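Sharing a chain and its predicted structure for anyone who wants a worked example. Both blocks are below, sequence first, tokens second.
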Amino acid sequence: MRYIIIGAGAIGGTVGGRLAGSGHDVVLVARGAHHEAVRESGLRVRTPEGTTTHRLPVVRDPSELGELRPDDVLFLAVKTQDATAALDAWSGRPVAGGGTAGEVLPLVCAQNGVESERIALRRFRRVYGMCVWLPATHVEPGAVSAAGAPYTGILHLGRYPRGTDDTARLVSAGLEKSKLLAPVVADVMRWKYGKLLSNLANAIEAVTGPLSGEEAAALYRRARAEGEAVLAAAGIEAVGEQEQQETRGDRVRLEPLDGEPRGGGSSWQSLTRGTGTIEADYLNGEIALLGRLHGVPTPVNDTLQAVAKEFARERRAAGSMPVTELLGLVARAEERAAVPGLS
């Protein structure tokens, strides 16, 4: 198998680096300064074991690879807001022996949220969901860091919308050879919905900083309670916190890298890099969408979605809003939601 990592950022870069380190054939897809840095100096992957530089093929778009191979596995690791453009670019690429990537190649959606699989299935016949629990950071071109040990992360994997197959098991075996646990499960979206509930904290962390105080933690609990109510109304099952913790156990412990604490999560990293976009539409926004579909008010998640998008659009500094200010915005949204016709 050759792994093509579409989006070699925190998750994609770490997965690609780990796969390459265990002898797998890997191609990275990156943009801008990150592409130039990897092309010139290789991809630096920092883990608790040390720093390794991988000299890997890196491209900006699929045309640079020419005809794809029938043993290629595509890993989609861009943020969901960038998924459509990436999928359109890759799905029509010819594959040696006949067919296009969308017709014959497996595509693994290694992303937060639950929307990319639906977007992908419009273009690819063989779609796999992946629930990513991998504490990784990408804020510097050419470098990623992952603080998990003894395993770098846990990546539940299965066919979308459900089921398993030999391809999933082969990919799992390759990942597990690379210090990435990859349980193959028939209900991968149940795991992804469980992760979605955890990711409702991303916007809070992105705009106010680490959730170290009780006020921020309490706000997350309120956002999660809305999420749980919405999923219940929609009849969607999600893995609970206890099951996630039992599965993770001590297999992935966070260890400081060179004595430095890890930065924030994926949304915080987007603001820190000043990308101009953020994945809030597919995290808090997913809860808002389901709430509107099923008649459940979601003022907390509505507010977090809107504020996070404003921060990204205006390229405001990550962590620069006091928690009290965010709480005030949420309170006003809750007041409006309580008045018929104003929500």
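Comments welcome. The chain has 14 helices and 14 strands.
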